[in-house]
Amino acid sequence: MKTILTTTAAMLLAGTCFAQAPQLTQGNIDGVIKAMTLEEKVTLVVGANRYAEIESGPDHAPGMPERKAQHVAKPKSEPQEEVVTAFSSGRVKGAAGDVVPVKRVGITTMVLADGPAGLRIDPTRKDDDQTYYCTAFPIGSLLSASWDPALTQRVTTAMGEEVHEYGADVLLAPAINIHRNPLCGRNFEYYSEDPLLAGLTAAAYIRGIQSQGVGTSLKHFAANNQETMRNGQNSSITERALREIYLKGFEIAVKDAQPWTIMTSYNKVNGVLSSENRWLITDVLRNEWGFKGFVMTDWWAEENGARQIEAGNDMLMPGTPHQFDEIIKAAQSGRLDMRYLDDCVRRILQVMVQSPTFLRYNYSNKPDLKAHAQVVRDAAPEGMVLLKNESVLPLKAGRKVALFGVPSYDIMVGGSGSGYVNRAYKVSLDEGLSAAGFKLDKQITAQYQDYVKGVKANQNENFWVVPVVPETAISAEDAAAAAKRNDVAIYSIGRMAGEGGDRKLVPGDWYLSDLEQKNIDALCDAFHKVGKKVIVLLNMGNIIDMNWSTQPDAVLHTWMGGQEAGHSIADVLAGKVSPSGKLPMTIATKYETYPSANDFPMSNNNPGDVNYDEDIFVGYRHFDRQPADILFPFGFGLSYTQFEYSDLKVSKQGSDITVSVKVTNTGKVAAKEVVQLYVSAPKGQIVKPVKELRAYAKTGLLKAKESEVVTMTVKVDDLRSFDNYLRQWVLDRGTYQFHVAASSQDIRLTATQDL
Ligand code: BGC
């Protein structure tokens, strides 16, 4: 008798007393929703953090809400032992958020973890000898600079395996906000000033991750183009600019690749918070584009939970007790119609039933890190952009190299903030060049290595703060001596940036510091005097002022190439790989010539409204009208060979326009070429840019003299512009020009098509 009673009590506690409650399956979502209590529904939509005590540590960025521990009594309706979250159990330690399971109806947790350049989880765990390092893959702007969706997909297929094998369900990536201004602190995570390039890169990214049975979260929806005052800052934009520029990339990625989830942004769009913006989330994203997954807030975007639910923002992350109470009250008082809440629950469950946790995937905690390191090494060279090369690159094997610049020795492999990755190691450039057989000047290398080691011993790197080792001076004497001893000088310039802050229009950030300028002067003077060359490498996720680029003989933008960066850069410098990356943004002659410079929030002391007055004229869409302000155009990048374009053909079949062009490698080394298709519309009702990128393709590796016919397709509908007054997409009739180009300023052939 006693045994029976005890068993019954245990069953009651474990919730099995509701044995008749339906259990979640693919086919039973509506049945489960019907059986759920209000508390259970709200439990699902408000993230698990409300139960958690987040450990102390580097937990907030300047200007960000503090990530405070939440001490709350659990709602009475939920038995304590039902709550097993990643936060509280440490199952995937360091994950950004998770869902509270509702075991009574078979709802499991889901683990959500950052971020774009690889999975961000804690690398070590208490009382556990195993390590949980993840691969630091190349950053977003390098992937888009490859103009190669297949490459992006290869990278993220590897990344997705880490997400799966470390037990997470959704990777909080990709991030695709438009590079409206070069100072945005998160541009390294984002892709481009052009929405087509951003959207197609994101679609490939999503396909790779989701091929591994885990989800993505396309973010930050929408118009989060600055970090300054991002919480609540208002992006004021015409509907045309939203539709054609700021939403377009999201639209492409959603339609092409259906991410499991989307993350709304912190800011307001035209006066309404993104997470409360029903027009954005329900009318456009779901009803127009057909998005099928669920939408979550960005972390701590806590305003009015009931309004967020009503807007169609299904999940509030990471979840606070206040949100829980507020939604319960709103539902009980009738202010929040239960239908909205049920819709949110349904959308979450539809994703959950595909998730590894729900499917009880027995993850190994042992992803193939070795194979992924090779993916990183092979991928990074494909996005590096050769900006200048006056008969110096590639370097012949065995050359004597004077390797200068602190970032050559303390290479930056990724940015800071939620896009940071806890990697096991990184390969610096001195290691990469030595392994590639170059002879580094021992004296110079030893000096830098000692200095970097000394400074780093007192620095602490974590995801919010990646400390930079200050640059050192190169004297004229040292430069002259180095020029005598070596064949060539390499100098690296680095910039760290990340979430929570924008970059600054000051020396040492947008501009070269005085020290960096003097170092370049000293090296160019000394090496040029004895007929030797200087190569400058950019090690950053974005761009800087480039007016100094007339001085050195070669400039290679290496971005932040992930943990194998030193090897990848050496592969390009040595000519093992001919560079084929092209700029995903315009480098202008002056910061002030970027049209957004008129209204980019430089400090927290501004009214919080950012007026996107340049409208659709972002990036090359603006600079095409002011070509004198371009230093390096959008789509530009040199190769170690040359390509000739011929046989341009444009034809229309139904709603598709097909463009083909023959690309021939006329130089001496094997290489790939990025072919860009820009279209100029006829003069019509609406003011149009000079031309717009409508398709692109990358050739395979073409040997000397080899050709490839590249075919690109454009849908007639994609040539429309959005009319602000009619509030619809409009196609102007007339003659369209189809330009195939090697960059936005290097049109090779043009053909026309009447529409
Ligand atoms: C970032 C998101 C990130 C989230 C979770 C936020 O601060 O804006 O991009 O996914 O934190 O870490």
Estimated share of beta-strand residues: 15-25%
The assigned structural class equals alpha/beta
Main pleated-sheet profile: 6 strands, mixed
Task: Count all strands and give the number.
Answer: 27
Overview features:
disordered N terminus, six-stranded mixed sheet, Rossmann fold, 755 residues, alpha/beta, 3 domains
Quick structural summary:
The protein is of the alpha/beta class.
Q: What can you tell me about this protein's structure?
A:
The protein is an alpha/beta fold and 755 residues long. The chain has three domains: 2-352, Glycoside hydrolase, family 3, N-terminal domain (TIM Barrel, Alpha-Beta Barrel), CATH 3.20.20.300; 379-583, Glycoside hydrolase family 3 C-terminal domain (Rossmann fold, 3-Layer(aba) Sandwich), CATH 3.40.50.1700; 643-754, Immunoglobulins (Immunoglobulin-like, Sandwich). The strands form seven sheets. It has a six-stranded mixed beta sheet. The longest helix has 17 residues, at 149-165. The chain is globular, with a radius of gyration of 27 Å. Beta-D-glucopyranose (BGC) is lined by residues 96, 114-115, 172, 219, 298-299, 418, 499.
How are the SSEs placed, and which strands pair?
Layout: H1 2-13, H2 29-35, H3 38-45, H4 86-89, E1 97-98, E2 111-113, H5 140-145, H6 149-165, E3 170-171, H7 195-210, E4 215-221, E5 234-236, H8 239-246, H9 248-257, E6 261-264, E7 268-269, E8 272-273, H10 278-288, E9 294-296, H11 305-311, H12 321-332, H13 338-352, H14 369-379, E10 385-389, E11 400-404, H15 406-409, H16 429-435, E12 439-440, H17 442-456, H18 476-485, E13 488-494, H19 514-529, E14 533-539, E15 554-557, H20 565-573, E16 587-588, E17 609-611, H21 620-623, E18 630-632, E19 643-653, E20 656-665, E21 674-680, E22 692-698, E23 707-715, E24 721-723, E25 728-730, E26 735-743, E27 746-754
Parallel strand pairs: 2-3, 3-4, 4-6, 5-7, 5-17, 6-9, 11-12, 11-13, 13-14, 14-15
Antiparallel strand pairs: 1-2, 7-8, 10-15, 16-18, 19-20, 20-23, 21-22, 21-26, 24-25, 26-27
Helix pairs in contact: 3-12, 3-13, 6-7, 6-14, 7-9, 16-20, 18-19
The structure holds beta-D-glucopyranose.
